[in-house]
Amino acid sequence: MDISEHMRIGPLDTHVRVEIDGVAIADSRRPMVLREKGFPPRYYLPREDVRFDLLERTEATTHCPIKGDASYFSAKVGDTVHKDVVWSYESPIPEAEDVAGLVAFFDEKVDVYLDDELQERPVTKFS
């Protein structure tokens, strides 16, 4: 399948920090950006740059015909659980292998900083 008309994946020379309730949950200078038709850009980060001590895998899964099967994580910050705000494609389809094992966040539900500048939260069906 040629996915180039639906999405593009590539490295981004940008510092990405993700915060939830004021707590940095991810901090990376090695992001991949996925630009998918109909969606805001998604920043996929190496697992080493994500605080997995604040994440817990959930039972949730979804299937994307362009990327494959995603698994989800909830973030616990203080006493608050932010359900299924993080996902990863552990074994994406071959055309999307650049995001294999990386972690992405629903930017609609977290604070994303690009080069220390807070980004406006996108409004999508996931808001």
Detailed description of the structure:
There is one protein chain. The protein is built from no helices and 11 strands. It has about 130 residues and is mostly beta strands. The protein has a single domain, classed as Metal Binding Protein, Guanine Nucleotide Exchange Factor, Chain A (Beta Complex), CATH 2.170.150.40. Strands 3-2-10-11 form a 4-stranded antiparallel sheet, with no helix packed on it. Strands 6-7-8-9 form a 4-stranded antiparallel sheet, with no helix packed on it. Strand 6 (about 55-65) and strand 7 (about 70-75) form a beta hairpin. The protein starts with 6 loop residues before the first strand and ends in a 9-residue tail after the last strand.
Write the layout of secondary structure elements.
Elements: E1 7-11, E2 16-20, E3 23-28, E4 32-36, E5 42-44, E6 55-64, E7 68-77, E8 80-88, E9 103-105, E10 111-114, E11 117-118
Antiparallel strand pairs: 1-4, 2-3, 2-10, 4-5, 6-7, 7-8, 8-9, 10-11
Keywords:
four-stranded antiparallel sheet; 127 residues; Metal Binding Protein, Guanine Nucleotide Exchange Factor, Chain A; single chain; mainly beta; globular
**Helix vs. strand class:** mainly beta
CATH superfamily: Domain of unknown function (DUF427)
The helicity comes to under 10%
Q: How many strands, which pairing sense, and closed or not: the largest β-sheet?
A: 4 strands, antiparallel
Distance between the termini: 30 Å
Strand proportion = over 45%
Q: What is the typical, i.e. mean, pLDDT?
A: 92
The first-level CATH class name:
Mainly Beta
Q: Number of folding domains?
A: 1
Number of helices: 0
Q: CATH architecture, please? A: Beta Complex
Strand arrangement, major sheet:
3-2-10-11
Unreliable stretches, pLDDT < 50, 5 or more residues?
none
Output the CATH topology. Metal Binding Protein, Guanine Nucleotide Exchange Factor, Chain A
Number of strands: 11
| Whole-angstrom Rg | 14 Å
Shape: globular
Query: Which series of helices and strands comes N to C?
Result: EEEEEEEEEEE
